Amino acid sequence: MLMFYREDKTASFVGMQHVVGKIGGRSGSFVLETSGSYDGKAARASWSIVPGSGTNGLRGLRGSGTYIAGHGSTAEITLEYELA
Which contiguous run of DSSP H or E holds residue 67? Predict the structure, then answer.
């Protein structure tokens, strides 16, 4: 992740995450591309699966999602996907 903090303690960020795991019993990995902001209280971001990044059983995976994480709290995460 690359983050830019402003003097008012807010921030903007972008990043990529390599995810390894199972979806629907199919194993593999994929990459999420993320962009978001931090308002001083919570981080909010949207992400999308990088086209062509799925491996093994997750080849052809497509989708996007969001997350919200308050400072020091548990994140709310969504990922809507299609698996060919």
Answer: strand 62-70
